[in-house]
Design a protein that fits this description.
This protein is α+β, with helices and mostly antiparallel strands. It contains four helices and ten strands. A five-stranded antiparallel β-sheet has the order 3-1-2-4-5. A hairpin with a 3-residue loop joins strand 4 and strand 5. The two termini are 33 Å apart. The model has no long low-confidence stretch (mean pLDDT 89).
Length: 178
């Protein structure tokens, strides 16, 4: 059975959250969102679903067929570097990871559910596989953050896309366009 992909825009009191849902139909997609909201004790002021798998541009179809034909019903994320990824758990918990490239002074922050997915995003976006062997260290990105640097983070970790992020003093955490 080939599933469908829905974008769910959730109205919060202070912002909108966007979740991506893989489901056989709109009713089941609604159930996934309600289950997730209940599991995390989140309140919302309603949500809207829109089927998007048929209207995605070709650049956003990396891994889409595999997702819709093989993934379980639930939430998914898209990364420009690695394509579509189903969430392993029905209610994923996204984390902030800090990835240090040992033989340089580079440090990257990534929002992803797991450390291995975070490292795959950094490796793909920076082309590390083509550069030969590199050593990276993966750290909990929240460790050592000041209270000021929590600005914008809860919204990114709620349903946010899996991606590299960077800190801006005025705007808080923002995604990095590849």
């Amino acid at each position: 059975m080939r599933f469908k992909l829905y974008r769910c825009t959730i109205n919060r009191t202070d912002r909108k959250a966007v979740a991506l849902v893989v489901a056989p139909d709109e009713q089941r997609a609604r159930e996934v969102i309600v289950e997730s909201e209940i599991a995390f004790c989140r309140e919302n002021e309603g949500f809207q679903l829109e089927r998007i798998d048929q209207n995605l541009p070709p650049s956003q179809k990396i891994g889409l067929d595999a997702l819709l034909e093989n993934a379980p019903v639930g939430l998914a994320s898209y990364s420009e570097a690695i394509g579509w990824v189903p969430h392993a758990m029905p209610q994923p918990k996204l984390h902030l990871w800090r990835i240090e490239i040992v033989d340089s002074d580079e440090e990257h922050h990534v929002v992803a559910p797991t450390a291995d997915l975070a490292s795959a995003i950094v490796c793909a976006e920076l082309g590390l596989a083509q550069q030969g062997p590199r050593t990276i260290r993966i750290h909990d990105g929240l460790s050592g953050l000041t209270n000021e640097k929590l600005k914008g983070l809860p919204a990114l970790l709620e349903y946010g896309e899996i991606c590299r992020v960077e800190w801006h003093d005025q705007r808080g955490w923002r995604t990095i366009a590849t």
